[in-house]
Model the fold of this input.
Amino acid sequence: MEIGDSPKKTKKIKSITASAPDSRPPPLTWAPEGFNANRGRLLTKDHDVSPSENSGKSCVVLWMSRDQRAVDNHAIVYAQGLAQAQGVPLKVVFNLVPKFLDATIRQFGFMLKGLEEVESNLRAAKIPFYLTSGDPCKSIPKFVQDHDAGTLVCDFSPLRVPTSWTNGVMQECTRLQLPMIQVDAHNIVPVWHASPKLEYGARTIRSKINAVISTYLRDDMPPLSSNIDADKVMSACKPVDWKAALKSLEINREIKEVDWITPGTAAARKMLESFCETKLIHFADKRNDPNTLVASEMSPYYHFGQFSVQRAILHIKSLRRYSEGTASYCEEAVIRRELSDNFCFYNPNYDNLDGIYPWAKESLDLHKADVRNPLYTRDQLEAAETIDDLWNAAQLQMVQIGKMHGFLRMYWAKKILEWTASPEEALATSIYLNDKYSLDGRDPNGYVGCMWSIGGVHDQGWMERSIFGKIRYMNYAGCKRKFDVAKFVQKYPPASSNASRASASKSSNGKNILNFLKKQ
Done:
């Protein structure tokens, strides 16, 4: 069984930046029947779990964070299996922080509605769901102490802030002599077993994933079973006040929620089925055309962990049709997504230019003084006020509906490099705008997308040119060869009028400068 495209023969390029450990973590010493022990790792090195006894403790706690779903969730599978082996109930807790990076009510609203469904699904299986708030490094250890937990299980994220939360909680668990297990419930192949190091690109990680994919791509996610001491634990757990939770957030509420997509696992399943029925047949040929709606629209669901990528791939492959579309989708959903997690896991500079290849850094530095004309501020870019109607339309699409077509994301970020004062400013601006407006912002895929476009990550050097150096170049004419640009621009009317005004302004400014020089 293989996923995605076959590796192509390319010139070997020296690897980069962050060092990585040479060994994978050992498999868990205990796992439920049918559970691959390599999916998890013990975080508290001196305090392991024992399925035969629970040291007199009252429960097992699952701290849910990245993977926000009650079904097809390996973290829940492990936690409930351990709880049943020890003869104690499972309790699930989610910690809500009042703000997170540049996320707005658009993203928080989507997440909270999904979590409301999680609570409902868990309660149906008599599994209590709790919502804590504040600093998780304090609230989660307090929760496990208050509930007399014998083991804490958590899911996995490679990003800086969630990793700092996990490390903080791990330190407290070590102090409390409480075992803490982390399960990668997001990737099909756990990030620490897909590769023990930072991979150069898709061509280098693809063979590694394909070598073990059959071990992991299995239907090994059993449905929830009823909780132990169900009546007792449920009577002590009050339903979450979701309105109060929403009100407690300290976030930007001006960026409105979108109505074209419904949050939650049930809605995600319908979206996937619709994609398979009507779009998968065209996906391989039309996925780079913004005018042809063949995208799966599953990215927000994957980002918030509301739907399992593993379940999606199992479903698509089970259909046994549209082989080219299936291969293309698997390449994006498995190889490229897991490559992004690899990059963020092994490279602490995943969102700044210290994390790019030496050749790219040197090339961008060499062209830092190149003239940028036009030169735009962040506010002008955010308002889609550039001379490029296609770029404006892509920006407006993201602002208005919380997503941007995948092909346009590359063009969009590369133009920001061309129009801002420095590569550092370009990267910071692209990440800021993506995180603020996209439903799937603040994600490894988003960071890697910006780093690929602006910093050449997972790419190679190209013909050298002004500003870009050896970073791959994209232009308007190239887009016109791929799809009907005018048709896409028409969908977002201000895009064209904004471009006309910006062009007129640029022309006027140019004439004023020439007149000034003539007078001098």
